[in-house]
Design brief:
24% strand, alpha/beta, 16 strands, single chain, 8 helices, Rossmann fold, four-stranded antiparallel sheet, Arc Repressor Mutant, subunit A, five-stranded parallel sheet, 2 domains
């Protein structure tokens, strides 16, 4: 018996699926799906029905799926979150997902990438794989094959805990929590995002504008005064083990105090 065959043409428009809005910054303080112990996937697909169908099948295979509808949202997601696999529709209205693969290819913690595309020419497939994609599925796709290929990519990839080690402080990007000396520290979602972005850039200056862009609704309008209270709180909580220094009024640098 064969599984469902989801075809990306007019018949696919008849698939009944709940409307899922594309992820967008600022819609919620809780940016990512959190699922302890489950592989975490980022799914980029601009068609809501297809995205919902792909996500349902991947979730049924035991994954936690973060859904986005634009390339810009996918770029932001991989900056802020840790994933076990990226499933990317290649051509979306705001760009070619291969550009994201190219951007990530130099990262040591880059997750495996599966490209889904209607571009089935050998040259297109070879080009994407050469740039850094790990697998390539040509539309129309079979949902069971999608789930199997994602499973194989995750199994073949090096283990990635998503934990950032900051000496006495450990930040888990999957579970969205922080511990100090093994004890859980309560942070608001925004405080976590600020600490996370400083942590992945440890030792480097992060401008106030960049922090605001990564951690707040871009439509809110940039204000330095919004950032300062969160920095003050982090300094108070982690002052004996982390140093968050101001850099000539332009931004902040995180360093580990006991290293």
């Amino acid at each position: 018996m064969t599984g469902p065959d989801l075809r990306d043409h007019d018949s696919a428009k008849r698939v009944t699926a709940p409307a899922v809005l594309p992820w967008a910054p600022g819609l919620s303080e809780t940016v990512f799906v959190t699922a302890s112990g489950l592989p975490r996937l980022l799914l980029l697909e601009d068609d809501r029905r297809l995205r919902s169908a792909y996500a349902r099948r991947l979730e049924a295979d035991g994954n936690a799926v973060d859904e986005v509808g634009t390339l810009a949202a996918a770029q932001r997601a991989v900056t802020l979150g840790a994933f076990d696999c990226l499933v990317l529709d290649r051509l979306v209205p705001d760009g070619d997902a291969v550009s994201l693969v190219r951007e990530m290819d130099e990262r040591s913690d880059r997750p495996p990438v599966l490209i889904i595309s209607a571009l089935g020419d050998v040259a297109e497939r070879i080009g994407a794989l050469t740039i850094g994609a790990d697998d390539y599925l040509v539309k129309p796709i079979h949902l069971d094959e999608l789930a199997l290929r994602v499973r194989r990519l995750i199994q073949a990839a090096p283990s990635r805990s998503g934990v950032v080690d900051l000496g006495r402080v450990r930040l888990d990007r999957h579970l969205r929590n922080v511990t100090r000396d093994g004890t859980r520290v309560h942070l608001t979602p925004t405080q976590f995002k600020v600490l996370e972005h400083l942590a992945v850039n440890v030792g480097s200056v992060v401008t106030t504008e960049e922090l605001f862009d990564r951690c707040w609704d871009a439509h809110a309008g940039f204000k330095r005064s919004i950032v300062h209270p969160h920095i003050w709180r982090l300094r108070k909580v982690f002052g004996d083990c982390l140093r968050i220094s101001s850099s000539r009024g332009t931004g902040y640098t995180l360093d580990v105090a006991d290293r």
